Every structure is written in C-alpha cells, then in structure tokens.
TrEMBL record:
InterPro entries with a match to the protein in the record: Cat_transpt
Compartment(s) of residence: Cell membrane
Main localization of the protein described in the UniProt heading: membrane
Organism: Paracholeplasma manati
Keyword flag DNA damage: no
Membrane topology (UniProt): Multi-pass membrane protein
Protein name in UniProt: Ktr system potassium uptake protein B
Keywords assigned by UniProt, alphabetized: Cell membrane, Ion transport, Membrane, Transmembrane, Transmembrane helix, Transport
Domain of life: Bacteria
Keyword Cytoplasm: no
Amino acid sequence: MSLSKRIRRFFFITPARTIFTIYLITILVGGFLLWLPISQNLGVELSFIDALFISLSQISSTGLSPVSQRDTFNTLGGIISIFILEIGAVGIMMLVASYWVIIGKKISLKERNLIASEQNQFTVKGIIRLITNAMIAVGVIQILYIIIMTIYIYTVQPFQASFGEALFQSVYLAAAGFANAGFDFLPGNQSFMVFNGYYLPQILTMIIIFIGGVGFWPLAEVVLFIKNKLHKKPYKMSFISKMLIVSHFVLWMLSALIYFVMEYEHSMKGNPPLDILMNVLFMTNNARSAGFYNTPVTNWAEATRLFFSMLMFIGAAPNSSGGGIRMTTFFLLTSGLISFGRHRKQVFFAGKAIKDQAVKKAYMVFALAIILVMLSTMFISIVEPNRWTIMEIGFEVASAFGTVGLSLGLIPYIGVYSKLIIMLNMFVGRIGILTAIAMLENKKETTNVVTYVEMDMLVG
C-alpha cells in the first residue's frame, strides 16, 4: 500500500476520523488566513498559535480569544471570521451537503453516514430533508436578525455607526449569535455592555442564541410544521424536538431564577428592575452555549462562578452549535439516578422508557468529560503556578469545554501549553465526547466469542 493511501486510510477510515480531519484542515486554513497581515490592523503582531486559537474558537463556536477582535483584525479579517463562524455554526458536512442538494448531486450512503455522524442523528433516514429544512430556517432567521439589527443600530445609534458599519456589525452578530459563539466586533471590547439600556438588540440576540442552541432537528421540524400548515395538512412534531425545545426553555428559566437569587444582593444591588431582568435573562441564556455578556463576569461571587461553570459544562442540545456534555445527557443522568433510587429496571424520561445503551452512553460521556475538565484544570494550574485560583482556571476550562466563551480574562495571559489544553477542550466540546472516542476505531470489530464468569464488586 502506498504512503498516500495509508495516510488517507488513517485519517478517513471512519466517519469520526473523517469529521476530525475535515475540521482540523478547516481550523488550520482559518488560522493561516487570520494570521496573514492582510487580515490585521496596521502595526498588529499576531502569533500563529494565537491565530490558530482564534480559528479553533470560532469553528467550535466558543468565543474565547487571547486578543481583542476589533483591535486586531481589519474588515477583511472580520469577514473571514464571519465565514469561520458560519462553518462552526452549521457544521462543515451540513454546508457541503447543502451545496450538494442545491446542485442536485446524488448523495451516497457513505456521505449520508458522515452527515448523520456529525449531526448526532440515529439514522440516515430523512437526513436530506432535515438538511434542506434546517438550512431554510438558518437562512431566514439570520436574514431577519440582520435586517432588524441594521435598521436599529443605524437609526437609534447605541454607538457611533455608519450604515455600512451597522450592517457589518449585524452580520457579524448574526453569525456569532446563531453559532452561540461569544465573538463580537463591537466598540469598547465589552461585548453587549455597549447595549446596556438598549433592550431590543439584547432581546433579538437572546432569541437567535436560543434557536441556535436548540439544534437543527427542531428547526427542521418547525419548518415542516409551517409548510404543512400553509398547505392545510396535519403535522405532528416528534417527541425529541418537543423535548429539546421545552427542556431548553425550562433549564433557561430555572437557571435564571437561581442566578437572580444568588446575585440580587451582590452584583445586581441598586440596579433598576428592568435592567436586572435583562441581566438575568441575557446571562443565563448565554451561559450554556454562547459567550456574550451584558454585565462584568468578574463582579460575580465565587458561588455564582461555580454555578455558571456547571451550566457551561452541561452545554446545549446534542445537534446544535453548542458544546458541553449536552443537555440530553444531563437529563438522562438525572433520570437514571431517579430510576435507580426507585429501584426501577428501566430509566424513564417524560413518561417514556429510554434504551439502556443510551443511558450507558450518557454516564460514559459524563465521566470522561469530568476527567477531561479536571485534568485540564490541574495541568494548567501546574504550568501556570500561583497565578490564578483553581476556581478561576476551572471557569475558563468549563467555558472552553462547553464552547461558551465567558471568561474571567485569563486567556490573553496564559502560556502556549495552557492554550493547547484550552484548545483541546474547545475541540472535544465541539465534536462531542462520543465522536472523540470514535476516532480510536479502525473499523475492525472485535466480538467477544468467550463469555467469562461474572463476579460482584463493592461499590460506593
């Protein structure tokens, strides 16, 4: 076998390795383009590792960055970032498949398997219809956001902006918002604090973040629902889609209530009621997937930082642009614990029994994610001794793994080794623990032909 065939076989032998390879190439290309002087403001010196960090952060829809986007990149760099953010939001295979659909290419079973693997689908059945309807939803949502935000920024002027600047900011925020990435090109380098007192931009961004975090499956079904309604045909949304939408909203409201109780007498003290409401809703909406902020994160109490670290660790829906262990994993874990406590043979969620294999996967994802986050926190504390507390480092690692982007300001000051650890967490958080594990597969299935005698073991 020739060397080129061996290389192709190694990197493309399974769907997981193919996805890994495609994302890796895209990250390298994106990093190289951002590293080029033509993408940067005059006088800026950006190291290649920092450009690669930003490219990975944008592909993974995170938002962590060692430099200010507005101070570092010019308009061309901003446009390149928009393209990278869109790729991270939708997924490379989804974009490629959309192009295939447009040109009428027949999509093979292998290609359908790749798309299903990237989007965490159970089956390839209906995958093309899913892509078509999801992309319609993505396009319509972002266009509406861009139109409204451009008009608002240009007419209300929350910051000094020409029509071209207003349009650019709106396009950038549409890409970053739907991607659930905390990147922005806004003046002041203080994220959405520039919109404090201006509620419409924050409300619109909360909506687009929520939609991006719910996932493509529910979006596709909403489009199908509307299409059928227009043709006066009945359509019933699937249990999974309903569950993702409802659970996403419930977890948002529950975390908002907890955050309000924890910070009402602290960072929110003395603020007007409407500002407090916007702060609570906006920050908890961003906590599990996006990384915008309308209040300084550094003002939070230690307990609040820990709570938000937990929310970031949970993440968004499994086939969305968010990261973490994923929302469904969290619900399977809690349902499994309840069922175990009640001595049930099956795990129930929302009145339905869940397959044992799915529950086992949830516990495996949780265990491996805990190990990754804890080891990453420990290693960074070793290579960055006596600089930050474990809580501060853990917050950044959780933000990276959850592909959120909220930060206490550590990223610009960490060393190369720490950046590599953060980058690993962002990448694994984006592709998912299961896909990362599946990269170890080589298509050679091993079957246990011998059954061994089982023994009991002390637990707990």
